[in-house]
Specification:
By secondary structure, the chain is α+β, with helices and mostly antiparallel strands. The chain contains two helices and five strands. The termini are far apart.
């Protein structure tokens, strides 16, 4: 049987869960012009922590591992000025 991209991702998830001792329940991937961000939402494998983690979810909070990759690095000239003794970019 040929390995697919799905198999590759599933193996990565299993390795990640084993290494960090967590259970991944959702992944959010956001592509932007200059960078990509992946949020890995997880639950602890320790059942004693689940009650607190469920409360966090009810309150709109989630435990995540966040991975960011920069797509471009630019060299450019910018306009700047001094404001209150600080150098700031002119926008």
């Amino acid at each position: 049987m040929e390995a697919t991209k799905y198999d590759y991702v599933l193996n990565l998830i299993k390795k990640f869960e084993g290494n960090w001792k967590v259970k991944i329940y959702h992944i959010i991937s956001i592509e932007r012009k200059m960078r990509s961000t992946v949020y890995i939402l997880y639950a602890s494998q320790d059942k004693n922590k689940w009650k607190a983690e469920k409360e966090d979810l009810k309150n709109g909070k989630a435990q995540t591992f966040t991975l960011e990759t920069v797509k471009a690095f630019m060299k450019e000239n910018i306009d700047m000025k001094t404001e209150n003794g600080k150098i700031v970019k002119v926008v």
